[in-house]
Amino acid sequence: MFTKILIANRGEIACRVIKSARKMGIATVAVYSDADADSLHVTMADEAIYLGPSPSRESYLLGDKVIAAAKRTGAQAIHPGYGFLSENADFCRKCAAENIVFIGPPVDAIEAMGSKSAAKTIMEKARVPLVPGYHGEDQNPAIIKKAADDMGYPVLLKAAAGGGGKGMRQVWSAEEFDEGLAAAKREAMSSFNDDIMLVEKYLTQPRHVEIQVFCDNHDNAVYLFERDCSVQRRHQKVIEEAPAFGMNEELRQQMGEAAIKAAKAIGYQGAGTVEFLLDVDGSFYFMEMNTRLQVEHPVTEMITGQDLVEWQLRVAFGETLPKAQHELAIKGHAFEARIYAEDANNDFLPATGVLEYLKVPEQSENVRVDTGVRQGDEVSVFYDPMIAKLIVWDENRDKALKRLTKALSEYRINGVTTNIDFLYNLATCEPFVKEEIDTGFIEKHQNKIFHDNLQTVTEELPMAALAIVLKAQQEASQKSENSNDPHSPWFSTSAWRLNEAHVQHLVLAHNGIEHKLSVEQKRDENRSYYHITVESDELATKTIDCQGELTGDVLSCTLDGYRTKATLCQNDNELCLYRAKGAFRFNRIMPDLGNADDSDAHGGLVAPMNGTMVSVLVNAGDSVEENQALVIMEAMKMEHTIRAPSKGVINDVFFNEGDMVDGGAELLAFIAEES
Questions:
Q1: pLDDT at 664
Q2: What is the reported pTM?
Q3: C-alpha distances in Å from residue 673, one per residue of 173, 620, 623, 626, 657
Q4: What is the rounded distance in angstroms from the CA atom of residue 174 to the CA atom of residue 170?
Q5: Which fold has domain 598-672?
Q6: The pLDDT value given to residue 211
Q7: Under DSSP, is residue 349 helix (H, G, I), strand (E, B) or coil?
Q8: Which residues have a catalytic role annotated?
Q9: DSSP characters for 404-424?
Q10: From the CB of residue 488, how many other CB atoms can be counted at a distance below 10 Å?
Q11: Which of 103, 277, 650, 665 would bridge 79 by S-S if both were Cys, CB 3.0 to 4.6 A apart?
Q12: Tens digit of each residue's pLDDT (9 = 90 or more) over 56-67
């Protein structure tokens, strides 16, 4: 077995590989950029080599530097993780030339699957079912558009060299085609330095089901069953599960054997994933093969009891597969939820910042957290915004789902906007629980996931107000106990006034809509209770009799005789209640005490995030139409287009292509046309 390996990656996957290597007694070498100098994977590894500046093209994507690091440290093999160099055939070839083992498939297999169009041709010859589409070499936009027109809309544009949702666009009509193609090609060139495109018929209700395959160099091949990855945003997976729901043994075997057929068609070795679209009628179609370990591999590990990284290391060393097909079995059910630094309420824009407070759920044989960050680390603009993967297991889907929601409600992150409450809402959403899932799930059930129906917050508004009051009382009590004057009126939170009611006034915002609440404290003998009145313009005015207590982060309360509980997560003026029916986030709007600085106010268009200016599509003096694309920004491998809010004129442009831009910075001076 190898005595030392280098991990050509960062973050969560680097830490994951180090754990398996350490268990096997293999020393590890990390590589790092400026941004990662003090990161967790560097700390965990036995040795570490500096690669260069923070941008990945100046560090992690420099194959020659990675190989030099391996040679310098005496590493016999390189594990590429996923992303970066993991599917780079040239890098694999250079490793072989230096007598360094690439822990992955052979060069020919990477090249065969590196082009989606070439892969389709190979799979067609191997008689693996394919989605109708155009995979030709002629990249004339008119040819591609004609193919789209002929097969009928909607269609899916995909970068031939793509992966991870990059260089992909859904196009719903001929009118949208040109802009969609230009955006997909631009993103593909930025991500892969290759803008060759293919176009496929877009199935409207498909599921994304993938098969984990493993092959050694002794002509053995197995499939470790399937994963359902249908729940996606921006063509990127959000929650994965294994096994796939509604899968009978016959279909499982058919898809597994098709996946092995696909792997053998290219002489595959190592860990690979064959991705299929599963239609409502049970037919399935080859999408692509990822010639690497997948982000979601832990759910397969949880249901099979196998360490797939250990399998990778053993196969790369020349050993046979640890298990034969008949020795593999499915046990229980597992989910993986990807914890991202992103604002789900703002089109999933990536977020940056410092993880000021980080508390993960208690880990056990049922709950696993794969991460590459610690409290105090910075989520930077340079890399993928994933913070961690939360993986849970139980004996069936229902029990595993309950574990997932409980663990999500216990996850605590302050300092960076995350998608935790979004994930909780998704996992508790009735259609998700009932397995009514396809790749359009999030768009289809947006109202349920984001609680856009205000009637759904009629209970949560008084609960949030009660939580704020009880929390303030706790904090005041603690300060009083530590004070030389514990009876000082400055520690009172009752809003008491001589000959007046004990009333506090709060303003809470949910999904951007503000609600006024008054909280009147009452006493009945030795019992305190509250009358909470919701005075919202959007909801009927209602007064609710409330009692409650706050124990740790659990709010127990009675609302007009109805007893209920919620887990509370509070960060400054932001409060989230986790309930069985979902997570409800409120922002407390504080009164304006005259300290607001209006100097930053302007009528221009601002950057929604920290990022890089990819394209400036207009000039000063240009007249623009409503919804016209003006500039394109990129952050954390994601593009975001800023569009004209109305018809108008561009008065000035403040940034050029390639400029780094801070979130909130004014990008353009825009003058709206008077109606």
A1: 79
A2: 0.80
A3: 29, 15, 9, 10, 27
A4: 11
A5: OB fold (Dihydrolipoamide Acetyltransferase, E2P) (2.40.50)
A6: 98
A7: strand
A8: 292
A9: HHHHHHH-EEESS--SHHHHH
A10: 11
A11: 103
A12: 999 999 999 999
